[in-house]
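Sample pair:
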Amino acid sequence: MLLGVDVGNTNITFGVFDGEEIEATFRMTTKLLRTSDEYGICIRDLLKHNGIDYENIHDVIIASVVPNVMHSLLSSFIKYFGVHPVVVEPGIKTGIRIATENPRQIGADRIVDAAAAYELYGGPIFVIDFGTGTTYDLVDESGAFLSGVTAPGIRTSAKALWEDAAKLPEIEIRKPASILAKETISSMQAGLIYGQIGQTEYIIQKTKEETGWHDMKVVATGGLGKIIATETKAIDIYDPNLTLQGLRLIYNKQNRGK
């Protein structure tokens, strides 16, 4: 079995693959600093809780945008799994050519999403990841990563509201019954959700206008992406496991152990 690990700014997401099938997914928070022993024991326990024997994990692939957790995390897999993970970094085979001005500035998670979207759905394709930041990435028909847009994520925007405005409460992020809000909580929900829908539709529209690719597919992923994807016709596909699938596809290109 292969363990895919996506280290994001908020959560570390794990996906266990048996061939092409995802057998289990689980998460742990990123912001809590851990030792290699804590990572190793915790990941073993999470695998066991999901009915998977850690000894069946034959390899690991990691994409990370949080450098300060990598030493402990990598060490945990070496010590507790006997595996030296593949890391998505410059020089690794991904199937995507980075055609931006500074390829090394493109986050590993964006490359993984782009690789998965292109291989699974073809190009040209526009990839949106609703995470800590909302990212919009353009891949052409040849698999070249051409450009990207970065905006605050929905939860990040919400946190800024209730932390920086003294009278605004912490709220559940969901679509209110109507955009015509009549009290504070639903007014915040309306601003967050409908604001994100509007932003998403406009960025897609402008990208199609400037590229001329009016029939380009749009695929979305990320924890809060489903809320947005179900509310707009501008998104063609919502794939909650796009990043994990990208890790699997990139791993397969490495000819690891063959």
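The longest helix spans residues 184-211.
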